[in-house]
Design a protein that fits this description.
294 residues, single chain, binds S-adenosylmethionine, globular, four-stranded antiparallel beta sheet, eight-stranded mixed beta sheet, alpha/beta
């Protein structure tokens, strides 16, 4: 082999390694589609908490205390944490003695949710987990007193569309808490992370007010906002009242260990660990449909 060919091969290998590092490590598969993102999180779910090393004090200071404070006027607030991962935000809220609401954690990685269930087991009466894509939130408009989404927007194909979903399900007067990726790596996430100054403008393009984008961690800014409109008191409603079919938005009814949609005839199983598996929907077989019509 001549040295020119050797050089060419070495260059090719280095370029491929660089490309893989960018796509899989920095971008965590975001440009390869949600399936790859989820596969990577499924693979790494068992070490996620070890990698992150969340500091309880700082989690309480930046998340648990201010969010509980913002919701203090609502007797039993209803909170949705989108891309909840291993249950970081639910834990921050549950550790607050003043928090007496309910939290729904939603994520597209089933393994991350398995760990979320495990790490928050002692608060299970205040928590529900849903396996579902953030791009199709299975709830009615104006439902939640707070909607949060931490360290995840940049891993979705169209962050603005996910933001629109978050705002849609937030009730007027409700609190939005989201992050935007910043720092060195954010430059390698075009179309996913927003330049620091631009993120406030992105939020201003939604019906939001009192928008505050604050530096938080090396890799993330933390943004708080309130949904515009006439505030109304929140109250915890049973899950069956707020859950909607992610496909046709019809109300769901619970029976035989699953949520059923009478609109499009899909059903969503509830797994042994209590997770509602919306990402694993199936249509009722024709025979069952006839039977249920009787
Ligand atoms: C860096 S983790 C953040 C988890 C958690 N919010 C935290 O701060 O620890 C990103 C999470 O986003 C989830 N995710 C990525 N794309 C998603 C999507 N389209 N719908 C729902 N969850 C998604 C991943 O499965 C993963 O759990």
């Amino acid at each position: 082999m001549s040295w020119e060919v050797g050089l060419l091969i070495t260059g090719g290998v280095l370029a491929l390694a660089g490309l893989l590092y960018w796509q899989l490590i920095i971008a965590e598969g975001t440009y390869l589609g949600p399936r790859v993102v989820v596969l990577l999180y499924d693979w790494s779910a068992h070490i996620y908490e070890r990698i992150k090393q969340f500091d309880v004090g700082s989690e309480q200071w930046f998340l648990g205390i201010p969010l509980t404070g913002a919701l203090s006027m609502i007797p039993a607030p209803l909170v949705l944490d989108v891309a909840t991962g291993t249950g970081r935000l639910p834990r921050a809220l549950m550790r607050q003695p003043g928090f007496e609401g309910q939290v729904i954690g939603l994520d597209l990685s089933r393994r991350m949710l398995r760990y979320a269930v495990r790490w928050t087991a002692q608060f299970s009466d205040q928590l529900t987990y849903i396996w579902q894509d953030a791009r199709q939130l299975p709830f009615d408009d104006d439902t939640f007193d707070a909607v949060t989404c931490l360290e995840a927007l940049e891993f979705t194909p169209r962050p603005r569309e996910v933001l629109a979903e978050l705002v849609r399900v937030l009730r007027p007067g409700g609190v939005l808490l989201v992050t935007n990726r910043i720092g060195r790596d954010a430059r390698f996430l075009p179309g996913r992370a927003f330049p620091r100054q631009a993120f406030g403008n992105v939020l201003r393009s939604f019906p939001l007010e009192d928008i505050r984008v604050r530096p938080w961690q090396t890799h993330y800014d933390l943004a708080w906002a309130i949904k515009s409109g006439e505030p109304r008191g929140g109250s915890v409603r049973p899950l069956s009242q707020i859950l909607r079919c992610p496909v046709c938005r019809h109300q769901l009814s619970r029976r035989d260990g699953a949520f059923h949609c009478e609109g499009c005839r899909r059903f969503y199983p509830i797994a042994d660990d209590g997770v509602i598996e919306m990402a694993r929907s199936a249509r009722q077989p024709a025979r069952t449909r006839k039977e249920s019509a009787k």
